[in-house]
Amino acid sequence: SSHEHKLNFKKSKEVCLSYIQDAMLQKQWKRAAEFLTFYIESLEKDFSTEYMGPSEIIWRIGTEILCHHPHSSMKEFNFFTEQMKTLGVKRYLKVCLEHAFHLLCNGLTDEAYQNLSLAESWRFGEQTAIQDKEMKLIQAYRGLLDYYSWSKQKNILLEHGQDGFEDFSVEQEMHSCFRKAAVNLKEIIKIPGVWDIFVKCYVDLLEFYGDHNEALQVLNEYAYNSKFPANPNAHVYLYQFLKRHGESKKSLLSALKILHDIVPSHELMIDFNTMLQKSKKRKKRQLALEVIFAALDYASWKENVKAWSCLAKQVKQIVISEKHLDWIKQEWTSRKDWWPAFHFSRYLAKRNWQENERLSYEKALVAGILLGKDCKYFKYVSHQGCKAQVKRFRILKRFVNKHNPVYLRISG
To answer: What digits encode the pLDDT tens for the residues 229-248?
Structure first.
């Protein structure tokens, strides 16, 4: 019957799709291509299929197969993509954008630019307004390629100077690329979202032409506008810009403080700690200790010599002055149950000593203060250092033994 035929047909399509999925998961691209061919042929006979579903499936699966198939060529990929553009008006701009990405990944920059330019001129009734966001993305990526061209022209001028007609033509081309890039990049970063690469390129353009106020305004908007999602990179870019232009220490610390609140394990926490330690204000020096302790809570920092050196330096200063031991105690209280196994085991002492003597020295100093002279890490490293007749390890051992009462006060 007609009903049974439809049910069997639907079931066979689902089975075919599962075979395609299985082949793709096992990276059997030839087999996946064969099943996709069967699937497309079956759709041609299926008059009940909804228009939206199949073209989306074929586009996604077909693109993935062509990207990995051993006998796939750029010519075939381009042909397939053009076919997909005609299958679904609602996805036209998305397919164009993906096509441009594929061309860029294969080094075909000019072709990608042409593809984006054609997509930008596309119009289809009400769909043009509905796909406004996709159109802005198309324009933004074309702006990114204009920036790329501008950057190449700029490097030519910087390398060869500005003499002669040839350089004048290069400069004219560079300014033309700048105008086109700036217009499109400026538009995309007005929309709330994560636009890191677009912001960086736009700021680079503005800086090159000396428009520092506009660049700073863009970065402040990107970092502090509540409509934008929380983004650590926004504060990194702002900090780097402020540092390049010699802005006040207060501005730099403000940018890094927010970055610390969002990502306490960020690599710039070394800069933050160093700046805070130099401050004359007690609160900032206390924050410096908090920052470096927080960074070392993360596994990625376990063997960071600079971080351990910063902590060792500040801990040593506090111990010698016998002021603000409560700062150390406050940080250590929440960590004393897990830091010993995480940082100061005998196994780590052996490994650190073998791989990096300076790291083992800095860690041994911190371990000796926080866990006392009987700490496994401190005992092993100081013993090996003295055995190797390295003078600073003898001094380290005497220092920790002398200040062992500090450990009792901290752990108390």
So the answer is: 999 999 999 999 999 999 99
